[in-house]
Queue: 3 jobs
Job 1
Amino acid sequence: MKIGVLCNVFNEASWLRCALDSVVDWADEVVIVEGSYKIAVEAGAPLRSDDGTLDILDTYRARSNVTIVYENERDEAQQLQKGLEILKDKKVDWYLLVDADEVWEQTDLKIIKQAIIKAEHSGIYQYRVNFYNFINSFDKYYDAKMKRIFKLTPGAIAVGQNGLAWPDHGKQCDVGSYAPHISELAMVRCYHYTEIKPAERWLLKKRYLKVRDGNPRFDKWFVTKDGFVNDEKDIKKFTKKHPLIIKSSPLYKLWEQDPELLRKELFDDR
């Protein structure tokens, strides 16, 4: 059985090395799709990463299990589909969807691999996992459950931001309600640093989502000198330890030295 990793990447220099290093030796194949979505370009993003991400990707190019491609599809699903087709060509059976700003612990990856082996005999096509979603700082987070582990069939189709459907097997995408082919790995936790971002990235994301969805709820999102504000989140204090690998991140080093330095780096121009 071959296990893959699929990662969409755009301007994630602060986190990318940590994210890739946490999974690159675990997976048989790693496919990285770099580039902004066309909707994001409409919202003001450049086509290619311009923050050092491309240089970081170049350091992984010599690895035999890593494939890097450059695309600019309409949205997340179309961009992911490009990567899915490569994983299919490489005969990958299951894949872990990894954002370029999240970190996986080796103990959790072992659990995931065991669950995948069992799923081959139980009719499971997808697992949700628990997330620490960090926001504005390394000591603030909110809980989430997200789709991350997928069986890959020849006709599998990416759906939405991170979903998958299997029309060739008569299986629909996870829409949040119970289905016999969807399960959860409650003991697994991913460390997601997606919301420790500078103000300009937040505002770009807000513009992108408004173009993509036209949803007025994004009008409630704003950035202040103290960080991103989204009242929909139940923010909690994080008192556990971060993965050792994240300590190489320049933003973590700033926060460890003084949380005020991180705030200034991210939001002091607001």
Note: Residues 195-267 form one domain.
Job 2
Amino acid sequence: MNKNQESNDTFLSEWLADNISDAQLQQLVPKTDFDAYLQLRRLLQSFAVPDADMQANYASIKAKRITANNTEAKRIFPLYGWATIAATLLLFFGLYQVYIFSSSVFTDFGKTMAISLDDDSKVVLNAKSEVSYPLFFRYNRTLKLAGEAFFEVAKGKAFTVETPSGKVEVLGTKFNVISRPGFFEVICFEGRVKVSHKKSTKILTQGDAIRFYENTSETWRELQLKPLWINGESSVRNLPLKWVIHRLANQYQRKIVYPQQLNRVRFTGSFTHRNLETALQSICIPLNLNYSISNSGTIILSE
């Protein structure tokens, strides 16, 4: 720990003990530290440590001395000890909020949601997706994603997206991530990202795309400036029908059945999120497939 950090820690302790005013602290520490201290205090205003009952403590100590025939020295726990414990608990509770993934947002079938993080980065969640992140995100720019999301990252220190399938690390950029069981895809729309999947690492620049599934990896060049699903339309390139159907089901919350031999049929194109019949036609007509919808709402695909 350097001398500046030691001084800041001392000022923090004094401030928590009300020996330094807000105005005095603002003159003693950098603005970023002062803002962080204010956020920590606001968060922990409801946290309180009860004052020590000195009379009860004294009576207890006196009784013990009588019982022990004065063979033990009186132990004194000064008031500043309680202040130290309180400050320590406050600090640890604040660090917990900074580093633990305490905020979580998820979307249902056919829904999207835009989120603004406190470092000015933006996240748009696609249907059936979830993201979790620390409350004070600007101090720990790491979040967890299950599903699909588009990111517009504010420039600053490293920004990391962790998923069950792999990890994406960036500085300031725009990119899309899909992480579903058995499927992982990243498209870089701007800047530069590092994609880690199992034992492999790949650097993507603007227009680069990569996907992993069933022990297969594929790369291609993406011409779009941002994902179409943000505006209500899914677009895929040379994707096995199995994963196209998965995306369709997430938007319309329908059970879809089809012959398993169609799993590896490849589809390039798009479908709307706003009309089921139109979406089915967009997929089935290019692939020469038929579809029907049962009375229960199940979609049946056939050759």
Note: Residues 46-52, 92-99 have pLDDT under 50 and may be disordered.
Job 3
Amino acid sequence: MIKTLWIALLTMLFTTASWGASTYTYSITANPYTSVGGTPAYYTVGLNASGSFTMASQLAPSLSSVEVRASVTAFSFDDGMGNLITQANATSKSFVVTTDLNGNITAFDVSVSATGTPNESIRFYTGDGGGVQVSYGSKSATRTGNPGSFSMTTAVTPDVATTSVPTLSQWALITLAGLMLAGVALHNRRQRRLF
């Protein structure tokens, strides 16, 4: 019984635990619009859309046009005029990505829309030459060609419990482990004397 307790304590001592969860945020700042539509004009050439989406785990390597919206935990996209489409107001969303051997996005077709007054939509895509399309009611803006690229940032967020967990320093842990091993050796030596 004592031996099992010591083994359990040693295992806990030398096991590294994660006290938070990692989130992976993929951000895009699109290149400027090349044409605008609607009368009177709402958007202007030179504005650009931007946005990001967050996942609990990094995108897998070597994906080829895979829809990953089920893994997206949050997103926010701006058409350049301050009109946001987020997870809270979106009525449709699609996150189709292709990744390289390291899980970096190399091609994408990301679109989000919100039905309301007015209807809004934002799309970034690399297929068919690439581009950006946004609309706000009857107003629209597009970019033909290179839409921009996604970059990834990783952040460690604390777990739900926000209380800090006290830990010992590295040398204190080594000393404690040594004392525990000495205690086990002493216990085994006393057991042998009894028999």
Note: Helices lie at 2-14, 170-194.
